[in-house]
TrEMBL record:
Gene Ontology MF annotations: ATP binding; sodium:potassium:chloride symporter activity
Key word Magnesium present: no
The organism of origin for this protein: Pygocentrus nattereri
Main location: membrane
Boundaries of every Amino acid permease N-terminal domain copy: 34-94
Domain SLC12A transporter C-terminal: 662-1056
Name of the molecule in the record: Solute carrier family 12 member 3
GO cellular component: apical plasma membrane
Length: 1056
């Protein structure tokens, strides 16, 4: 067996030059002429290789060349044939790999020119990025309002609650990020690869929308500040609200243009901008320590007034959680690093000792995010205590003349202690103070204490620092790296077919230009709202839903206890992750219960959509692991419970061969077991096991995939055996697990028994004997046209192959070869005349008609059955299987229009009594049947005896007409033939089968399906050909017929 090309392992001596690459070297162009053995670490020539990371890479990996280890067959078979190392030529890396190319996003072939791809370390890529996202619009234009409403006490709780949510999410995210290589896709990648495409796809769209709205939030915050500047300078264009919309739309248009420029300049500039941002924050702290001027006092700026602002003062219908909802988007920057995970370098152990201790060698994302949460959280708390609540009152007029008149009393606020009376704010809305002025930072910075001559220039400087840097940079980072990048990853996975348009990237960094444009339109739509306090709660709701799923992903993966869950980050706890998920959900509902319900309704709808569509992806999610664990536990639980007749259901083992070759048999079995029972389609590969093993292995996955594509809830199993009977015997004995074992054998009637080899007939009948021995219920399907369409499928495949070859030849003749007239020139369709001259199609009309009837008959059980009857000839009590199977059919949609008719054997003189007894029995079984017929003339001798005798004539021994010696010699030479003695002994049973066929012809000729009790051949007494003749005589020239024989154990009961 040929093995795949593999890279030189670490134990290979350097003198061997094994590798020769062509193309780009990523699997599809890699090949090697001969792979010799090497002197390994074991000191002798060997094909085995020592463990190496290169053996575990995916095809087309971007992190290094993939190596293919020698296959087990190669190691085993080569030495088995001849003791030498005669290694065959190798093939391309892409063929026969044990890891499919679409198993993971790592398998994407890297761009040809990857030299200019920008990668970031944990400081630039995670820490700086998270801090710049968290320090944004809320810190500079809403923090004062938040703590004016909530006060110092509840304000600290708001910050701490936000930090708890983000810290728990960060711990969960760290565990997921360090459980393998994380590629581009951010939160979507983490959730989808952990919980599967259903959860990942649903929350992916929701989180994409949240990030797009977050762009609008930052832009509106920036626009508010610019409008305030215009207002100070009397430069309002229309009015404040429309000016916010105009400036916001202009800003987002500029962002769309800048985003196309690439990431290099932004990566270089962010450290400089972070330094300016830190200087601006320090500037605020310094400003609060400088004594206030009279102008600032008139605007409510004082020192040491924290006690005044400690208690809450909620206004305008605000509550603790509504204020929290507005503030929480300030903490949502924790995913800034994860959202560009595809552009991050692995954090080497030498970068930072702390990162190794906390997050492991690849934990740059973890340490960067945790440090960002710590630093920004302390900044918010310090800003709250030192520069907001300790220095600014809630209400101020801004009028220097609002001082306390001599002898007048004042108790409106602590401003009275500083000589100012702002009591007018109790009846009219003032312009300044924590509750009224969102630009409190403008007069808490140190720049405002310089002389008035420099005032205008310093206002511009402050606006530049506060607006452009503090708000525009987070806008850009969010716009450029969060939504478009991982929305592109979502689209590349092709979970939603309609969104695949956005998967295309441009440039060396695979820039998602189409994603930028989509973000632009969503952002513009929300910018038109022009109210930051309206936009922020929408974002909080969606971000909390995303964080809940990240936490749940970590819990779910830990709960599954899959051996593949081995995160390098150890400082997490599955119960803390679950607590984080519950906390996020609880906060969502407390903030706005109907918005939370709407969010989860959308998520459930998307989840169901993805589940129904079943995208062709397999990421080894924890959902799969939990499903496996539950299946094992449920199977073990079933094994400890005794079977009960009320819970009996047919568990079918169906001898279909390749499932698509006998569709009628599969469809009928599927009707019995769909959603409720086990259906195992089986194939026996007859021949030497060594020769058939490879064919059998190749068919396993192929046939199971076909069953899934045809939406047949069935399994496929195969065995290789020296004979059909031995293989079937192995399947009957070993199939199933615990209580999930087959109890009913289904197979097709052997139509060619008269022309088949004697051994084949003996093996076929032997399978029936084995089924009875193993106490299986047995079901045999006969269609007059036959069941096997394998020859038709083979002809169709051959025809398709010929047509494809002919079309390729036609294109060559029309000049469509490499270097032809042009790539975009339309191809002329191959003419029917040319096709007719080059493809020789058989024109035998009889054969074509037979095949047409066979195909139609094979597909008849796929369609909904018209009104008709299912005729049940329940002649022998076999435990009730003959009655249960047709009842199950009537409960299916395809058969619901078919009514049961039951025929039983009886004596002519007690027909009515037998009928009443059967009606009573059916009533007890709760099986509805309005037609019961008692057949009282089964004992009458049939008229078609001569036809039966002609049928068995070639298989008779005729020893009665020979002398004793000749008769004995014939018995030894043809032991399988039907003897005269045997025929005489079973004359009555033979006549019964012929007579039954006559009655079936009379009564059930128009039935949609006939179900008849199957006759049993006693082992050692009835020859195989006589038994096949009975079955032939019983079922010939009838509609689709099922011969059924239960295992004579009750499958029906009338007890509760």
């Amino acid at each position: 067996m040929e093995n795949l090309a593999f890279e030189k392992s670490k134990d290979d001596p350097p003198l061997y030059e094994e590798t020769s690459f062509s193309g780009n070297g990523y699997g599809n162009g890699e090949h090697r002429s001969v792979r010799p053995s090497v002197v390994s670490a074991f000191g002798h020539d060997t094909l085995d290789r020592v463990p190496s990371i290169d053996f575990y890479r995916n095809p087309g990996t971007v992190s290094g060349h993939r190596a293919i280890r020698p296959s087990l067959q190669e190691l085993h078979e080569v030495f088995q044939k001849n003791g030498d190392l005669d290694i065959p030529d190798t093939v391309d890396d892409g063929e026969g790999s044990d890891v499919l190319e679409n198993d993971d996003i790592e398998a994407i072939v890297p761009p040809e020119n990857s030299a200019g791809v920008v990668k970031f370390g944990w400081i630039k890529g995670v820490l700086v990025r998270c801090m710049l996202n968290i320090w944004g619009v809320m810190l500079f234009i809403r923090l004062s309002w938040v703590f004016g409403q909530a006060g110092v006490g509840l304000g600290i709780i708001i910050i701490l609650l936000s930090c708890v949510v983000t810290t728990l999410t960060c711990l969960s995210m760290s565990a997921i990020c360090t459980n393998g290589v994380v590629r581009g896709g951010g939160a979507y990648y983490l959730i989808s690869r952990s919980l599967g495409p259903e959860f990942g796809g649903s929350i992916g769209l929701i989180f994409a929308f949240a990030n797009a709205v977050a762009v609008a939030m930052y832009v509106v915050g920036f626009s508010e500040t610019v409008v305030d500047l215009l207002k100070v300078n009397n430069a309002i264009m229309v009015d404040e609200v429309n000016d916010i919309r105009i400036i916001g739309c202009i800003t987002v248009v500029l962002l769309l243009g800048i985003s196309v420029a690439g990431m290099e300049w932004e990566a270089k500039a962010q450290i400089v901008l972070l330094v300016i941002l830190l200087i601006a924050i320090v500037n605020v702290f310094v400003g609060t320590a400088i004594p206030a001027t009279e102008d600032k006092k008139a605007k409510g700026f004082y020192t040491s007034i924290m006690s005044e602002n400690f208690t809450p003062s909620f206004r305008d219908g605000e509550t603790f959680f509504s204020v929290f909802a507005i503030f929480f988007p300030a903490a949502t920057g924790i995913l800034a690093g994860a959202n560009i995970s595809g552009d991050l370098k692995l954090c080497p152990a030498s970068v930072n000792l702390m990162s190794v201790v906390i997050a492991g060698p690849s934990g740059g994302d973890s340490i960067g995010t945790l440090l960002a949460i710590l630093i920004t959280g302390l900044t918010y708390l310090a800003s709250l205590c030192a520069s907001v609540t300790a220095t600014v009152v809630r209400d101020a007029t801004g009028n220097r003349n609002d001082t306390i008149a001599p002898g007048a009393s004042c108790n409106f606020s602590i401003a009275c202690d500083f000589g100012y009376d702002f009591s007018v704010c109790g009846t009219t809305k003032c312009q300044y103070g924590l509750m009224n002025n969102f630009q409190v930072r403008d007069y808490t910075t140190s720049g405002t204490f310089i002389t008035a001559a420099h005032r205008e220039s310093l206002i511009l400087i402050n606006v530049f620092k506060i607006c452009l840097i503090h708000e525009c940079l987070p806008i850009f980072i969010l716009y450029k790296n969060n939504l478009p990048v991982w929305f592109q990853a979502l689209c590349k996975d092709n979970i939603y077919k309609a969104l695949h348009f956005f998967a295309k990237g441009h440039g060396k960094n695979n820039e998602p230009i189409r994603g930028y444009v989509l973000t632009f339109f969503i952002a513009v739509a929300f910018i038109l709202i022009a109210e930051l306090n309206v936009i922020a709660p929408i974002i909080s709701n969606f971000f909390l839903a995303s964080y809940a799923l990240i936490n749940f992903s970590c819990f779910h993966a830990s709960y599954a206890k899959s051996p593949g869950w081995r995160p390098a980050y150890k400082y997490y706890n599955m119960w803390l992750s679950l607590f984080g998920a519950v906390l996020c959900c609880a906060v969502m509902f407390v903030i706005n219960w109907w918005a939370a319900l709407l969010t989860y309704a959308i998520e459930i709808f998307l989840y169901i959509y993805v589940t129904v569509k079943k995208p062709d992806v397999n990421w080894g999610s924890s959902t799969q692991a939990v499903t496996f664990v539950n299946a094992v536990n449920n199977t073990l639980t079933l094994s400890g419970v005794d079977e009960h007749v009320k819970n009996f259901r047919p568990q079918c083992i169906v001898l279909t061969g390749a499932p698509k070759t006998r569709p009628a048999l599969l469809d009928l079995a599927h009707s019995f077991t769909k959603n409720y029972g086990l259906c195992l389609t089986c194939e026996v590969f007859v021949g030497p096991r060594v020769e058939r093993q490879q064919e059998m292995s190749a068919s396993m996955e192929q046939n199971q995939v076909w069953l899934n594509q045809q939406k047949r809830k069935a399994f496929y199993a195969a065995v290789a055996s020296e004979s059909f009977r031995e293989g079937a015997e192995s399947l009957l004995q070993a199939s199933g697990l615990g209580r999930l074992r087959p109890n009913t054998l289904m197979l097709g009637f052997k139509r060619n028994w008269r022309s088949a080899d004697t051994a084949d007939v003996q093996e076929y009948v032997g399978v029936l004997h084995d089924a009875f021995d193993f106490e299986y219920g047995t079901v045999m399907l006969r269609l007059n046209q036959g069941l096997d369409i394998s020859h038709i499928l083979a002809a169709e495949e051959e025809m398709e192959k010929m047509l494809l070859e002919q079309q390729a030849l036609e294109m060559e003749e029309n000049g469509f070869q490499e270097g032809g007239k042009g790539f975009f020139k339309r191809a002329r369709k191959p003419s029917q005349k040319v096709l007719a001259t080059r493809v020789e199609v058989p024109h035998t009309s009889d054969v074509a008609k037979i095949n047409q009837r066979l195909v139609e008959a094979s597909s008849q059980f796929k369609k909904k059955q018209d009104k008709g009857t299912i005729d049940v000839w329940w002649l022998f009590d076999d435990g009730g299987l003959t009655l249960l199977l047709p009842y199950i059919l009537t409960t299916r949609k395809k058969w619901k229009d078919c009514k049961l008719r039951i025929f039983i054997a009886g004596q002519p003189e007690r027909t009515e009594q037998d009928k009443e007894e059967m009606q009573s029995l059916l009533k007890k079984f709760r099986i509805k049947c309005n037609y019961i017929s008692v057949i009282g003339d089964l004992h009458i001798r049939p008229t078609a005896e001569k036809l039966f005798e002609d049928m068995i004539e070639p298989f008779r021994l005729h020893e009665g007409s020979k002398d004793t010696t000749q008769a004995e010699a014939l018995r030894k030479e043809h032991p399988w033939k039907i003897t005269d003695a045997e025929l005489d002994h079973f004359d009555e049973k033979t006549n019964l089968q012929v007579r039954l066929n006559e009655l079936l012809q009379e009564s059930s000729r128009a039935a949609k399906l006939i179900i008849v009790s199957m006759p049993i051949a006693r082992k050692g007494s009835v020859s195989d050909h006589l038994y096949m003749a009975w079955l032939e005589a019983l079922t010939k020239n009838l509609p689709p017929t099922l011969l059924v024989r239960g295992n004579h154990k009750s499958v029906l009961t009338f007890y509760s």
